[in-house]
Write a structure and sequence with these properties.
Blueprint: H1 3-21, H2 29-48, H3 89-99
């Protein structure tokens, strides 16, 4: 079990607990869907604990960084990742930097 696996599980469970404690007597469908998504993430993380037997082991599902950090925006319904982005924070950061506009050079006054 890696530290990243454990952190992913803890994060998903904390999110699920926060969502559940914030529910009203009659939660909306959107609130229920958020809770279900958080619980699925927790279940997936728990299922991956101790099992590195697959084509791409680890919590990120990334061949280059299988035990790297999971992007905190992964699975966030309010701020979703762009299409093509995965769970790996390192790869997503590289994509973000590549997509960023280059800075224009500052003009120096003579």
């Amino acid at each position: 079990m890696s530290y990243a696996d454990l952190r992913e599980l803890q994060t998903a469970l904390t999110l699920a607990a926060d969502l559940a404690s914030g529910l009203q007597t009659a939660p909306s469908r959107q609130d229920a869907d958020r809770l279900v998504d958080a619980l699925r993430r927790a279940l997936t993380a728990a299922d991956s604990l101790g099992s590195d037997s697959g084509p791409v082991p680890g919590p990120t599902g990334c061949a280059a960084h299988p035990h790297g950090a999971v992007d905190p925006l992964y699975g966030d319904p309010e701020d979703p990742l762009p299409p093509g982005y995965g769970k790996c924070l390192l790869c997503n950061d590289r994509r973000r930097r590549a997509d960023a506009q280059p800075h224009r050079p500052l003009r120096r006054s003579a």
